[in-house]
Design a protein that fits this description.
249 residues; single chain; 12 strands; 7-stranded mixed beta sheet; alpha+beta
């Protein structure tokens, strides 16, 4: 079980209302329900394991014991551009991990963090809509593979911090991420995007773009200030605001 007091005692802000659970289906799902019931900004749910962890585009996110699974609620949305929340969160997560272990963390557009060519964390930012369709909140979720055994199908694809010699306490990393997010969410936009680009592992690389059922080759040219990906394809340049890119590592 997670030690809530250890997390809260390390936070630099008192605006986070932290709850910890041993197991849940999805911290993002739990927090979306709480948001619809009027939960305030800073409401945070942290789980030791998830049975139905989710990633972008309907993917599952393996959530075995030993990882960190955290969701925090952002309100009002107007204070943070929804288009760059994921970019800011990726920078915050990279900073948090590097602050506790001497390992280089890279970012793969748009929402994954990598360690030595293997996925070590994922981010999922989901909007919460009012009955009239207005965006009233964003649930920001992150899953980090700290230690433990990942599913066999992820062999060669994902990794853990422990697999590279890092000994990291889940509570310490939870606090480090929330503190890093507190800084990244209000930092100068240009500075954040500069770091996001510096850490991004797809710039200048040949990739396969996945958009729905469409797959096509492209070369990554740039990440825009809005967090979109500018690519060169056989049919000309495109700017991607959604989708995925597959990179042969």
């Amino acid at each position: 079980m997670l030690d809530r007091d250890r997390i809260v005692s390390q936070l630099n802000s008192d605006r986070y209302a932290v709850s910890v659970v041993g197991q849940t289906a999805s911290t993002n799902t739990d927090l979306r329900i709480a948001a619809l019931m009027g939960a305030p900004a800073g409401t945070t749910i942290i789980a030791a394991t998830q049975t139905s962890g989710r990633g972008r585009r309907g993917h599952t996110f393996a959530s075995p014991t030993g990882g960190l699974y955290l969701s925090t609620l952002l309100r009002p949305v107007g204070e943070i551009d929804p288009g760059v929340i994921t970019c800011r969160a990726a920078v915050a997560a990279a900073r948090a991990m590097e602050s506790l272990c001497d390992l280089p963390i890279d970012i793969k557009w748009v929402n994954d963090l990598y360690l030595y060519g293997r996925k070590v964390a994922g981010i999922l930012a989901e909007g919460v809509l009012s009955p009239d369709g207005a965006l009233t909140a964003v649930v920001l979720g992150i899953g980090i593979n700290i230690c433990g055994t990942l599913p066999a199908e992820l062999d060669g694809i994902a990794t853990t911090l422990a697999a590279h010699g890092a000994t990291v306490c889940r509570e310490d990393l939870a606090a480090a991420f929330l503190n890093a997010w507190e800084e990244a969410s209000t930092a100068d936009h240009g500075d954040i995007m500069e770091e996001y680009r510096r850490r991004n592992m797809v710039l200048g690389r040949q990739v396969t773009v996945v958009q729905g059922s469409d797959l096509y080759p492209a070369t990554v040219l740039a990440v825009t200030d809005s967090g979109h990906l500018r690519v060169s394809t056989p049919d000309g340049e495109r700017v991607l605001s959604s989708g995925e890119v597959s990179l042969r590592l």
